[in-house]
Amino acid sequence: MRGPVSGVSGSAEGVDGSAEGNGGSAEGVDGSAEGNGGSAEGVDGSAKGNGGSAEGVAGSAEGNGGSS
Questions:
Q1: Domain count of the fold of the chain
Q2: Is 44 within 8 Å of 6 (Cβ atoms)?
Q3: What is the per-residue pLDDT for 68?
Q4: Is the dihedral angle over the CA atoms 14, 19, 25, 28 positive or is it negative?
Q5: What pLDDT, in 10s, does the model give residues 36-51?
Q6: CA-CA distance, 25 to 5, in Å (whole number)?
Q7: How far, CA to CA in Å, does 64 sit from each of 10, 45, 48, 56?
Q8: What is the model's pLDDT at position 65?
Q9: What is the mean pLDDT of residues 11-32?
């Protein structure tokens, strides 16, 4: 059960991360490096985090459309 709980926490951080990612892609890169730092839980989280990054990219594209 600890796994799922950690995953939930990771998701929450992912949301915050995406916001910062929009502010600056460069910062997002630094964030990924920190994710590697938490190898134990980070490994499971990183896999899901990567999936989130892909969605974040798609989201930014939609965000641009919304600007128009």
A1: 1
A2: yes
A3: 53
A4: negative
A5: 443 444 444 444 444 4
A6: 28
A7: 26, 28, 25, 12
A8: 52
A9: 45
pLDDT at 28: 45
DSSP 24: -
Range of the domain at 49: 2-67
Phi and psi based region of residue 63 (left: phi greater than 0; alpha: psi -120 to 50; beta: remaining): alpha
Considering all CA atoms of the chain, what is the largest pairwise distance in Å, rounded to the nearest integer? 44
User: What is the chain's mean pLDDT, rounded?
Assistant: 46
Question: In 7-38, which positions are buried (b, 16+ CB within 10 angstroms) versus exposed (e)?
Answer: eeebeeebeebbeebeeeeeebeebeeebeee
Residues in the chain: 68
